[in-house]
Structures are given as C-alpha cells and as structure tokens.
C-alpha cells in the first residue's frame, strides 16, 4: 500500500496532515469517514517517494489538489513524471485546482465518483 515509502516520507506526511490547505480541508470534510458513497480515503498518504493528498486504497485511486505553482512549466514536468511513477505502481491519479475544489465542491465530488466508476468498470470490480 505504501510501496516502500521511506520513514522521512511518513514523517512529512504526518506533518502535512496537521496543516491542510483550505482546499484540502474542504474536500476532506466531504470525503472523510466514508461520507462519499462509503469510500474510505486517507489524507496525506505516503506512496513510494510521494505523498498523495488523498488516497482510496480499495480502488488504488489518488486525488491531488493543485495550487497555482502547478501552472508553471517546470512543475508540470515534475507532476507528469510523478503521475507516470504512480501509474507504474497501478495507482490512478486525478487532479483538481484548489479554487475549483472550493468553488465547485459538489462537482468535484461527482467527478471523483465518475473516476471510481471508470476504475471499477475497467477492472470489472
């Protein structure tokens, strides 16, 4: 489940759980404690050398929330490499802009459920 994440990654994930961004807090409030169709999500979940904002192990599904820094070309390259690494581990990633999460939370939840359905259908789950 953690794909050999280092103790340092676990330590950093714990720190991040103690200081969620506003968009992470908004989404966490809606998906925590199996509130979204009984799906279990973890926040700031260590995987390999990364920390996923949210992760549903049952469907190997990660959610990343992106601030404005992710609009920069060098960060886009890093994000693409990160997604390729996670895909190689069998983890599906979806990204949302922070402002979209805050302004259109219900739409984000719908898109998350659609992604889960797509995963279920593609794996006949």
From TrEMBL:
Cited CDD domains: Endonuclease_DUF559
Domain DUF559: 11-116
InterPro entries the UniProt entry points to: DUF559, Endonuclease_DUF559_bact, Restrct_endonuc-II-like
Name by which UniProt lists this protein: DUF559 domain-containing protein
Lineage, broadest ranks: Bacteria, Pseudomonadati, Bacteroidota, Cytophagia, Cytophagales
């Amino acid at each position: 489940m953690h794909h050999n994440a280092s103790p340092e990654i676990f330590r950093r994930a714990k720190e991040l759980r103690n200081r969620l961004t506003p968009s992470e807090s908004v989404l966490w409030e809606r998906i925590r404690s199996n509130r979204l169709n009984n799906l279990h999500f973890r926040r700031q979940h260590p995987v390999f050398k990364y920390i996923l904002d949210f992760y549903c192990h049952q469907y190997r599904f990660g959610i990343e929330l992106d601030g404005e820094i992710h609009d920069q070309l060098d960060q886009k390259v890093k994000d693409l490499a990160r997604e390729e690494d996670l895909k190689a581990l069998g983890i599906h990633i979806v990204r949302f802009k922070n402002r979209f999460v805050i302004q259109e939370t219900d739409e984000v939840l719908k898109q998350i459920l659609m992604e889960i359905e797509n995963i279920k259908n593609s794996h006949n789950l």
